[in-house]
Here is the input.
Amino acid sequence: MQEVQDFVTHLPARFGAEGELLFANGRNVLKVFVVKEGHPVLGKVVVKRFRARNFFQTLAYSTFFSSKAKRAFRNGMALIRHGFDTPEPIAYAEERHHGLLRYCYYLTAFTEASSVRTELDVNFNRPLAKCFARFIAHLHQQGFVHHDLNFGNVLYKEVAKDCYEISVIDINRLTIGIPSQLTLKDCKDDFVRWTDRKDLLTYVVEEYAKERGLDVARTLNEVLRLKAVHDRNWHRRKNFTLKK
Here is the structure.
């Protein structure tokens, strides 16, 4: 649409001064813009601006690898084609200076869905946990691995009593492989990052195994082993950083 083209063209100039801020850290900024007043999709658009961590990342994304925004856009389209929910991809844009990628932008439709963090990690909503487990199972059955599946990146809407629609965001790290060749080790990032509650993790993994027709006890033991390795390595890195 012409409105999208015009918006993207002027986005580098507008992003810093306009828009409603949703989130910001050292590298990434999330804002909401109105692209076309009253439009069901363009009336409220979320723009995520990515910035590389250092010069080496800048060089890599400028020459050898697709930008994070481009990967997020392609992954979003792939998820939707396979029947998964993610905020509707609208466009991506790249801002370059002298051939080097300075910023890249990923545009999606706004969503009213909420993070599952409180309902799962605090309240342990079992019906929602079961929907979450099935969502992960279906992702892996189609060859998708999110790789950053923390509770901030998992959203939900209640569509009926004890029935929930799960969606994912922050999908630039997502990979797509051959489903039959994915092992639990290949998928470990989708289990080890989102909780330290053993009761919640156990329940979700057991429901995941049932949905995929896997041996429940064996699957749970392997995930708990992978979780222990991940946590041990994480604490080592954390301690090393603190000592420095």
